[in-house]
Amino acid sequence: MSMEFKERLRQRRRFLNFTQEYLGSLVGVEKATISGYERGTSRPDIDMLAKLSKELKVSTDWLLGLSDEVEWEFS
């Protein structure tokens, strides 16, 4: 079974050694917002999903559990 968004977000953030605070600073939100995403108490809108995918260097499909391909090329 595929992991949920909250689990993939946490897994990738930790893989990159980002704190919730650091990831939040990269995408323009507070640490509490990232924490809420990872707990599953809130979900990002489409613009935030795009920002998260860019900073985490994964596709939005991967974050949403629609793909198992992790890496995404950025130019």
Task: Identify the notable features of this structure and list them briefly.
mainly alpha; 75 residues; 434 Repressor (Amino-terminal Domain); single chain; 57% helix; globular
Give the topology, please.
Layout: H1 5-15, H2 20-27, H3 31-39, H4 46-56, H5 60-63
Helix pairs in contact: 2-3
Top CATH class: Mainly Alpha
- Output the number of helix runs: 5
- The tally of structural domains comes to 1
Tally of DSSP β-strands: 0
What fold name stands as the CATH topology?
434 Repressor (Amino-terminal Domain)
Task: Provide an overview of this structure.
The protein has 75 residues and is mainly alpha-helical. The chain contains five helices and no strands. The chain has helices at 5-15, 20-27, 31-39, 46-56, 60-63. Helix 2 packs across helix 3 (31-39). It starts with a helix and ends in a 12-residue tail after the last helix. The model has no long low-confidence stretch (mean pLDDT 90).
Briefly say what this structure is.
The protein has 75 residues and is mostly helical.
